[in-house]
Amino acid sequence: MKIEIKIYLAINILVGHFSLISIYYIIYQLSLFSSSLITCYHLILNCYLYCYRKKMLSAVVMLTYRNIVAVVDKLFLIWQILFPLVYIFVAGYAYSSLINANEIIIGGKTIHYNVFLAVGMIGFNVMNSSTVAGSIIWNDKRNGMLQQILVMPYSKLQYIASTLLTIIIMGLASASIIIIAGLPIIAGTITIDITSTVYLIFALIMGSIFFGSIALIISTRIKSNEGFTVIINSVFLFFAFASSAFYPPTGLPEPMQYAFYLNPLTYIADITREGLFSAIDTFTNIKVMVLGIISGITFLIATFSMYKMRI
Questions:
Q1: Nearest to 265 by CA among 84, 82, 136, 121
Q2: Are 197 and 250 within 8 A, CB to CB?
């Protein structure tokens, strides 16, 4: 019987896959022998799980690389950099004359509007980058590439994970570019330390997951290119201007203020600002919790929608 087990294990290892029937059979056979063989079984199973995780991770990395190469081009990079800079340096100084400098107070600090806008554009650019998620899936579905990818040794979960990882990388990269480009404006007003960096990265990652998931849901439901473009632009336009990314909610009508705090972009922008301006308090941590829950629920809905999508 020992020889049979060894042969059986060897065959499974060679083909690189353990089915549930295989595992149950091995457990049954090993239970007939000593505890040392049980230990060997656990070692073999742990090795298999390690190889499986490594294989899954490498698949996600390869798909992420493919997404970046396929989506990121010169025109996209120019748009991702030029649009926020125009808004910061043109709209920021233009609207500063309309907004009283003493009206914007964060953590006891009086913030000029151009500084307020420069930090808010970090969250806005994360949302803007997230449209890539929907574009990737839509183009892959339209061109038949998604079907070809899933025929290869890639799962839908790996495909979704690679898409969201692509968005997170692009969001962090665009945020870094905005911070560097906006240094002439925000230098001396922000504080970059471990705490602020943790809150900033959390806001960017959760924002990428939320808006990336929204783009995934829309792309799986819409069947025409025109419909996808119109709906995703309309939805993201609402998120952009019904938030604190461009202007503070203070002074707005009360219903508008409620609408602001139903918008996850407000939480992203506020967490980023309160982290960089060293204004973290209990309310900031509540926003962190709310943003994490909303992003997690949206990701689960996007995953379910992706699994139910007809290719």
A1: 121
A2: no
Comparing 37 with 151, which gets the higher pLDDT? 151
Are residues 165 and 133 in contact, defined by beta-carbon separation less than 8 angstroms? no
Distances in Å between the Cα of 28 and the Cα atoms of 32, 37, 46, 56, 162 are 7, 12, 18, 28, 38
Distances (CA, A) of 7 to 2, 4, 37, 172, 283: 9, 5, 15, 49, 61
Asked whether residue 210 carries a pLDDT value surpassing 80, the answer given is yes
Determine phi and psi for 176, rounding to 5 degrees: -60, -40
pLDDT tens digits for range 88-135: 888 777 777 777 666 677 777 778 888 888 888 888 888 887 777 777
Per residue, the 3-state secondary structure of 163-214, as one string, reads HHHHHHHHHHHHHHHHHHHCHHHHCCCCCCCHHHHHHHHHHHHHHHHHHHHH
Q: Which residues pair with 109 in a beta bridge?
A: 106
Contact 129, 170 (CB under 8 A): yes
- 100 DSSP 8-state letter: -
Contact 181, 81 (CB under 8 A): yes
Return the closest-CA partner of residue 214 out of 301, 311, 125.
301
218, 298 Cβ separation under 8 angstroms: no
Cα–Cα distance list, 106 to 189, 203, 278 (Å) = 11, 17, 9
CA distance 118 to 186: 7
Q: Output the pTM of the full model.
A: 0.76
**Residues 299 and 211 sit within 8 Å (Cβ to Cβ):** no
Cα 21 to Cα 248: distance, rounded to the nearest angstrom:
59
